[in-house]
Amino acid sequence: MSETQRKIRWGVVSTANIGTEKVIPAMQRAELCEIHAIASRSIDKATSVADELGIAKAYGSYEELLADPEIEAIYNPLPNHLHVSVSIQAIEAGKHVLCEKPIALTSDEGQQLVDAAAAHPELKVMEAFMYRHHPQWQKAREIVRSGGIGQLKTINSLFSYFNDDPDNIRNMADIGGGGLMDIGCYPISVSRFIFGEEPTRVQGLADMHPEFGTDVMASAILDFGTGTSTFTCSTQMAPYQRVNIFGDKGRVEIEIPFNAPPDRPCKMWHQTDTGDIEEIVFDICDQYGIQGDLFSQAILNDTAVPTPIRDSVANMKVIEAIVRSNTSGTWESV
Predict the structure, then answer these.
(1) Taking 90 as the threshold, does the pLDDT of residue 97 lie above it?
(2) 107 and 164 share a domain?
(3) Does residue 279 share a domain with residue 152?
(4) What's the domain range around 34?
(5) How far is CA 127 from the centre of its chain?
(6) For 153-178, what is the mean pLDDT?
(7) Are residues 14 and 118 located together in one domain of the fold?
(8) Residue 45: pLDDT band by 50, 70, 90 thresholds?
(9) What mean pLDDT do residues 167-182 have?
(10) Do 323 and 194 fall into the same domain?
(11) If you average pLDDT over residues 297-306, what whole number do you get?
(12) Do 208 and 173 sit in the same domain of this protein?
């Protein structure tokens, strides 16, 4: 087997649900990923998950996993406040790192990870915005860039779910909870991905939970100069997600833009300047598996990852500007 065909040996730091229920099974089905070890602060928990998912090794600490010479890459789905510190530990241990979003609690903290990655150019480091790798988003960007909707004017996104559990990390402000951090980061990322540039200013409004101290609903306008993006995200609304991309001659609508299902085809609609609407159906695929393979391929070929880690800091800067705007009541520069 050639270097470009072998599988990368992965270790997972955490038994978080996003990993055990979605990412790990997808990567185990992928072509270039071998989930070789998993770690938890509880060896019993790590062993239980390893047995359940057929993972060879279980560790009772993150440090033990990072010291394993057989592990080449780390997937980090820890709570937000541990993204940067543990990822930097992994880099210093000589591991490539795929870290869940949002990359950090602040852009300054995120920059620490960027700097650590820059100090080790032989290692690959990327934020796990899995949606970008799904064929539906590659197609959406292709349509926009090829003039399929005319001039890009505005993007409208909505992403919501309902979770009022005070013990859920998404409702804990001190460790990076709240709607903007958990799911608002997606429409921000989408907007930057489709416009291909950064917004110059934003205006935001948030509804804060009186006990949790987190935003349970946030809305924002992003000004890209040539167009805008608007979105609402909420942790206490009926579950829903949709993205519409509007141009002066057409539009693109994505049915399930972020949590694309891995077990059924995905759909989008492209309205052209004639008014005709084409339904585009995508073959069944798993965006988490695609992400794992793309990252592994970058390691094997020693090529750039699909999204440079500095992109993560740019996303965080938009989140911070929205938070400032909610306080000031005015437009805030990014």
Answers:
(1) yes
(2) no
(3) yes
(4) 8-129+290-303
(5) 6
(6) 97
(7) yes
(8) very high
(9) 97
(10) yes
(11) 98
(12) yes
Residue 123 DSSP symbol: S
In the chain, % of residues over pLDDT 70: 99
Max intra-chain CA distance, the chain = 61
Whether residue 311 is contained in a domain is answered as no
Q: Per-residue pLDDT tens for 233-275? A: 999 999 999 999 999 999 999 999 999 999 999 999 999 999 9
Counting Cα atoms < 13 Å in the Cβ hemisphere of 262 gives: 17
In this structure, the answer to whether residues 325 and 177 fall within a common structural domain is: yes
Same domain assignment for residues 203 and 152? yes
Bridge partners (DSSP) listed for residue 102: none
**Extended strands (E) in the chain:** 8-13, 33-39, 57-59, 73-76, 96-99, 125-127, 152-162, 201-208, 215-223, 228-234, 236-247, 251-254, 266-271, 277-282, 332-333
Q: Indicate whether this model's pTM tops 0.70.
A: yes
Query: Is 110 within a domain?
Result: yes
Lookup: tokens for 306: 């699909």
User: How far from the centroid of its chain's Cα atoms is residue 126's Cα?
Assistant: 10
List CB contacts of 255: < 8 A, sequence separation 6 or more: 242, 266, 267, 268, 269
3: in domain = no
Amino acid letter at 24? I
Handedness of CA 306, 188, 165, 211 (dihedral sign): positive
Vertex 221: Cα angle to 226 and 209 (nearest 5): 165
The answer on pLDDT for 294 being more than 70 is yes
